[in-house]
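INPUT
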Amino acid sequence: MSEPPPNSLIAVAMSGGVDSSTVAALLQREGHRLVGMTMQLWNQRRLPEMQVEGATGRCCSLDDVYDARAVANVLGIPYYVVNFEDRFEETVVKPFVDEYLAGRTPIPCTLCNNHVKFDQFLDMADGVGAGYIATGHYARVSFNSESGRYEMRTGMDLGKDQTYFLFGLKQHQLARTLFPLGGMTKPQVRALAAELGIPTAAKHDSQEICFVPNGDYAGFIDAYFKERGIAREATHGEIVDKEGKVLAEHEGVHHYTVGQRKGLRIAAPEPLYVIATNPQTQQVIVGQGTDLYRESLVAKDVNWVSIAPITEPRAAQVKIRNRHEPAEAVLYPTGAQDRVEVRFLSPQRAVTPGQAAVIYDRDLVLAGGWIE
Amino acid sequence: MYYFDHNATTPIAPAVLELLQKVQAEVWGNPSSIHTPGQRARQCVETARSQVAQLLNCDPKEIVFTSGGTESDNLAVLGAPQGHVVTTAIEHPAILGAAKHQADCTIVPVDANGLVDPEDIRKALRPDTTIVSVMHANNETGVIQPIEAISAIAREAGILFHSDGVQAAAKIPVDVRALGVDLYSLTAHKFSGPKGIGALYVRDGVKLNQRQFGGRHERERRAGTENVAGIAALGAACALPKPEVGALRDRLEQGLLARIPDAHVNSAGAPRTPNTTNIRFPGLEGEALVIALDLAGFAVSSGAACSSGAVTPSHVLTAMGLSTAEARASIRFSLGRTNTEEQVDALIAAVEKATARLRKLAPAHV
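OUTPUT
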């Protein structure tokens, strides 16, 4: 982030939650010209089977739009709801469904950041004459004049840090993006929101994936396929051990994730875990807890954030899940700039293909990619 | 702020506002009361009824006051006997929604200019058809439908014929006798009147089923104490001279076509209301253009607003065969009595500037 020139117009992505509302109030207090926008990403009333009585605070609900509009009115800034539903369905929902059915655990938030929030929204900002966008993400961006690169660092509030989902941001996106909350803790944000008189100061944080508010992914996919008239082939397969011995049957690999222990319903002297799934053969491979540990991984589609692609080994810490303590590792170049090998100093549990591996040097986000 | 969205609503005319406030303050009686304050209110209502009747060339007793266009449309479609409805793909949701609550409905398509072929209406008729509803002028494109030809077909078949005249009344001449309609909807706020008041023309002899129940108001066609001030204001708005905006609209259209590459007028080949033009800017995102123009001080519109306020592609344009992307690239400009040449020229310059900026981004949107 470079400090926006005075009087430049900033488009604030307003979800109706306390974080983005505070961003708008904060930037306004600093004297910036603002335009507030709420991205309409998914029609929560679209799939009748997914209607949840009394569910509130889910993304893109009318309540959230109402809240965002109320904040914009209090601040006296222009405000619009922008319709990104088509792009969201193409670049987030469909890949989510495909990944899930392929037995991988998708991360729609990262896809949304890469393809919607920091792409289409940035274009929309451009289109209306806003040179910068601002969001309520917990991350920090600064410009390193020595390297000539924009650098991303974890949010100061490590409990709220969102860099795991932001590793896909390119230099041109970072150059125009403001994360005003990156240097604050959540309690500080709430206190500031109250001080600024933001109507949503006490609102709860959103938790689940926004378009599956009840967390029932399989139910969502069933409802989505039904709406689109796609007949799903019944999926079933075998649960096997490492030697290939059939232990049980199951109703589709997408019901299983690597590391899962519950729901296998197989009697065994030692607890059994899912150690791999194979969507082609519809096999779920189970083993002991020790079988889950891996010493290395290869990440593909790597985006180098704060540094140029490495040409020689480099020490780093790597997160393989959002709630994963970054593990000490050494990075090795693979010959292709968008692939990198990660060798952990101690083996890591449940390295899951399809999940993101995000690479840090302490608080600095070096790169991120998808586990092969 | 220069306002070019008069098909959404219009600013109330000063004389109409003055009357509205005066009646609201002074004529507070209930028109159904037998005493003097009530009689005064009744007089206001009946004066307005005559003014509306004069606008439509009908008898005052054929006018039923309603809360606006949606209620008038609903009353016509749902007040008709239970049965099959024939309507078109470009109707307002007040018609399409009501038609789905009738026993059955057939939605007749339109051609690339947004025109209904009367023969398609004829083919859609069934023995159980009880009402045909075709809008007079379209809100998105301004296209004027061949109402006389369609009403003749309905009359011949002995079927009720309704036309939604919300976007036509007080913009183009409306003579319900010449049009041959049985039912005709209008609403005050589209022609310099207040919101929340409208009317339904019900031809003498046409019997509608009641849609709301209560007192015996409006000759038992619409229960509820009359909105006296609103009705008076509607009457006054009907008596205003029609806005002369055809030349301004043409100036805007020609200016935009001359200055913006690829710009294209939707429905250019059909008769249109003189205040409306719908222009497609291929490859651009209409939503961004609307926002950019608003920030620059010009109010225009694109598509339809969904419940959140986000824009969805116009079902009218997609019914004409435009792709979703083409519909999203289209902007509606609708003029009214306060617009001037200077405003139109400023708008042309602002659209040129905004489209040039958006065009640089266009490939990312495709």
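end of record. Chain A touches chain B through 24 residues (CB under 8 Å).
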